Amino acid sequence: MSRIVKAHLSMLGVSVIFGLHYSIAKSMMPEYLTPLQMVFIRLLGAVILFWAFQRLFIREKVERRDLLMLALCGLIGFSLNITLFYAGLNLTTPVDASIIHVTNPIMVLILASIIIREKVTLRKTGGILLGMSGALILILWGRHMQFGGQTALGNILVLLNMVCYSFYLVLLKPLLVKYHTVTILKWVSFFGFLFVIPISANSMLSITFAHFDWYAWSALFYIIVPTTFLVYLLINYSLNILSPTAVSYYTYLQPILAAVSSVSIGMERITFPKVLAALLIFTGVYLVTGRKRDEGRGKREEEISIQ
């Protein structure tokens, strides 16, 4: 199996994990944990797991001059990204949050073209727009966004979360050429945790773990291990092979996977809008990550990597 195929399968796994994360995280707040408590526990768990994993399997040091960029990635990709997401999700709905996240590939394409000079082609742009339309059809069919009161504030926070995540994908790309994925995540999670300590440590004193039932502990495990440790490993691995734009495109697959799971357990049925949305999204996948027929086989990786 080629590295490119493995990268795409990794991002497919990320989409599945993230797709479930919306509802699981929402169900934890505020009954079990506040957003800041969720952030503190999630990042503490990430630091422990990434440092232990790196200590056991990867012996690599980073240059001092790169620590500043790692700290910036930790601030944007871990502390701000996760804090804004939970604060926003606590006020809005999973549907609204998933709609806003559809903007991610567009943001990444723009930022990547400016910061790291990723080539913007008509093919990529068309693929992103097709995927966006498919995702919106799937999410919005029979539903609507809410704009009043706290929901509006929640939507704004989720949008800012998406901006931070887009910056993270773009800024991290050059570091992945130089260091192992686990080494980067060890430092990025560490700096991210340091930044959230001042705003979240005090809230930890009010947690009553005795009130946690089996669901709360299971949800917390899911948020720390698959959604943080495994997902960031897979994202960084994929970024080492694919462009930030291609990686961000997998945001569009999350509603598709959620719909498939609902159909498989009998909660929903197959309808024309679902089929149309799937066709638009997967056509977009082909355009964003594929290649033209007249290009040589050896240029496949060049097209989906930074140019």
Topology of helices and strands:
Layout: H1 3-28, H2 35-57, H3 64-91, H4 94-101, H5 104-115, H6 122-140, H7 149-178, H8 181-200, H9 214-239, H10 244-249, H11 253-264, H12 272-289, H13 300-303
Q: What can you tell me about this protein's structure?
A:
- The protein has 307 residues and is mainly α.
- It has one domain (3-303).
- The protein has 13 helices and no strands.
- The chain has helices at residues 3-28, 35-57, 64-91, 94-101, 104-115, 122-140, 149-178, 181-200, 214-239, 244-249, 253-264, 272-289, 300-303.
- Helix 3 packs across helix 8 (181-200).
- The longest helix is centred in the middle third of the chain and has 30 residues, at 149-178.
- The radius of gyration is 19 Å and the shape is globular.
How would you concisely characterize the structure shown here?
With 307 residues, the chain is mostly helical. The chain is built from 13 helices and no strands.
Domain count: the total is: 1
Helix content: over 70%
Radius of gyration from the alpha-carbon trace, in angstroms: 19 Å
How is the main sheet built? none
User: Which runs of at least 5 residues are low in confidence (pLDDT < 50)?
Assistant: 292-307
Number of helices: 13
H/E series: HHHHHHHHHHHHH
Structural class: mainly alpha
Query: What general outline do the C-alpha atoms trace?
Result: globular
| Beginning-to-end CA distance, first to last residue | 24 Å
- The counted number of beta strands is 0
- Return the average pLDDT rounded to an integer: 80
Strand content range? under 5%
User: What would you call the quaternary organization?
Assistant: single chain
